[in-house]
Amino acid sequence: MSLTGRRAAIVGVANTAQARRLEGATSRGLAVSAALAALDDAGLTLDDVDGISGDATAAGLLYDLRLGPAWLGRQFGIQAITEAVHAVEAGEADVVLVVAAEAGAYTDRSATAPWTRPENEFVVPFGLFTAAEFALIARRHMVTYGTTPEQLARVAATIRTNGSNTPGAVYAGRGPITVEDVLASRMVADPFHLLDCSMTSEGGCALVIAATDRAADAASAPVHVLGSGSDHAGPAYRHPPAWDLAGRRGGLVLGRIGERAAGRAFAQAGLERADVDVLELYDPFSFEVIRQLEAFGFCGPGEGGPYVEDGGIGLTGATPVTTDGGTMAFSHAGAAPQMFQRVVRGVQQLRGEAGPNQVPGARVALCSGGGAGALFTTVVLLGTELP
Amino acid sequence: MTLLEPQHGPLPHAAPTGASAPFWAGCAEGELRFQRCRDCAAVTFPPVETCRECLSGDLAWEVSSGRGTVYSWTVVHRPATPAFAVPYAPAIVDVAEGFQLLSNLVDVAPEDIRAGLPVAVRFVAVTDSLTLPYFAPEAPEETP
Predict the structure, then answer these.
(1) Helix or strand run (H / E) with residue A98
(2) Residue B13 domain flag
């Protein structure tokens, strides 16, 4: 919260069409469509925008949309959203567009998607890519706690079935997906089968962050950012993603990354874990959901596998997870959109606009980004009301 | 099950930095090199300009025994690029001198890999210009 007491809220959200390939679409064209749709949702126009963020293309969009002079955000994923909130609350901007899209980036299908392949000298010659990096974290958890492939598959089956029931999801209508389906899919990087992994797809999305006094014309009630946090352990895909990697202060290790971030977010919000109605967890690989449930304090260390096996993450469980299908079944449109889409979905849940997978009466949502294979985890808590 | 094999032929790899050039030169000469701080004796890898413990710039290169144990691993069946023949097994190795290294496991069947498996470095010249430090199970008679 700012010293002036000014509050920012998420007042508009939008997804473009999402698909494995959107023939003829470009990243820029999708970004413009997403931006205009989110502004329309907010009851605002481009003339109201005095800030923009999203990814490396934001400065170009700022110029091409003639938004300048305007505030420019530089953070990635969840942190781009919290950075925009902080900028508005500090008085640096009034209406910030957070937008990203991707199309046409993944064309060589003989290789994994370009954003999954690291270029570091100690990584690239050993054939690492994101699935392998995240598998190294998952395997260590399995060795330490006895977590099973079936428990991982339960995560994937739950999220993919959510996506099957979500209008507009890339894999809408493709389910239900069972644990057996996941285990029967071909192996990508042991313990991850194909269906344990995110898809690749194209699409765009946008959010509008505005001072609450600018949100009077929004069609929907503003969604408040109650707390946020970020944990980083270094650059992604350069160093061994070892569960036990620790820093100078000791204590938390890489495998628990996100615990500190979540603790900070809950402290800001004045909320307990039990106050959260829905978890829009970033789901690049099935195990990452188990890891985050433990790191964020929804179950104890090593208890994530049994927790998901007992149905804790289902739509009727204690903590429904990734209710639109996430990167596994909704969309995974490049580096930035996939992160923003967790927050878009959190907003939809809190507005009661989540369709068949609406969590009844949802008032608080936790959204996350990153993952231990990538050496960072970011968290934001959304709510329908200010504390 | 057949044993995992080293890669052969051109692989994607990045040019060494100033700090890492001695490591790659060591691989070409059959030495697994790492840095130890002359001031605080901390071991660090990958190579750095200043000690990650005490920030000293006085780092000495040493040669590892090349022995270690498997910390974590995966067996890849869908290669990062077509340059890699599958299956291959990226792994984090706990090296005896006290550092961790990303590598690939070779000469082991995928189902025989386990955490704590004793391994030893095996240098393989995949091309004329790239020698990689792979790790293979230590021969039983060499295990203390």
Answers:
(1) strand A95-102
(2) no
Asked if the structure places residue B66 within a domain, the reply is yes
**What distance in Å separates the CA atoms of residue A181 and residue A287, rounded to the nearest whole number?**
16
Determine contact: B7 vs chain A, CB below 8 A. yes
CB atoms inside a 10 Å sphere around CB A324: 27
- 10 Å CB burial of residue B42 (0-12, 13-18, 19+) is middle
DSSP letter for each residue of A137-177? HHHHHHHHH---HHHHHHHHHHHHHHHHTSTT-TTTTS---
Q: Is B115 on the interface with A (CB under 8 A)?
A: yes
CATH number for B45: 2.40.50.840
Q: What is the pLDDT of residues A282-336, one digit of tens each?
A: 999 999 999 999 999 999 999 999 999 999 999 999 999 999 999 999 999 888 9
Whole-angstrom distance, CA of residue A154 vs CA of residue A300: 18
Distance set, CA A241 to CA A121, A177, A294, B55 (Å): 15, 30, 18, 23
Q: Residues of A with CB below 8 A from B102's CB?
A: 122-123, 126, 128, 240
Task: Give me the residue from B16, B75, B80 closest to A112, CB to CB.
Answer: B80
Structural domain tally of chain B? 1
Q: What number is the ipTM of this complex? A: 0.95
Q: What is the pLDDT of residues A323-356, one digit of tens each?
A: 999 999 999 988 899 999 999 999 999 999 999 9
- Within 8 A by CB and 6+ apart from A184, the residues are A193
User: Domain range spanning residue B25?
Assistant: 21-137
B143 part of a folded domain: no
Rounded to whole angstroms, the Cα distance separating A323 from A232 reads 26
pTM score, two decimals? 0.96
pLDDT the model gives residue B1: 66
Gap between the Cα atoms of A102 and A294, Å rounded: 32
